[in-house]
Amino acid sequence: MMYIIIFIVAVIIDQLTKLWAISNLKGHDQIKLIDNWLHLTYLENSGAAWGIFQNATFIFAVLTILICFGICWYLLKNSNNIDIYFKLPLVIIMAGAVGNLIDRLRLQYVVDFIYTPLGGLYSFPVFNFADMYVSLSAIFLIIYVYFIEAKK
Question: Rounded to two decimals, what is the model's pTM?
Fold first, then answer.
């Protein structure tokens, strides 16, 4: 039950921040929170990560649904054999996938609004909370599996 609540809260946070971005950033100049480090800017992304594969909404929707079913199946089948450090990132990845799926189905694009130019050293593409959920959880899972699970 805890994982369902975490999933729902994560999706709600993602969707509320995107609604805020639409209301406050669309059609306006970017907001510089930390000059040359963190900006808020509105972007409609009809592609995948970093804007690749533009206008492939149907393919992304089907892939997202398949991935979510796969994660759910894996969690249900292996619930007693995996610990929180493996379950939680999978749930958060699924929340990110569903957050962006909601945008794709509702708007035909994903709302991105967080921009990090990193002091001009490197400029990440504009992203959102769902993207952070997926990216950070995937990184955590790789580190966890490689360094912790492998040693068990």
Answer: 0.89
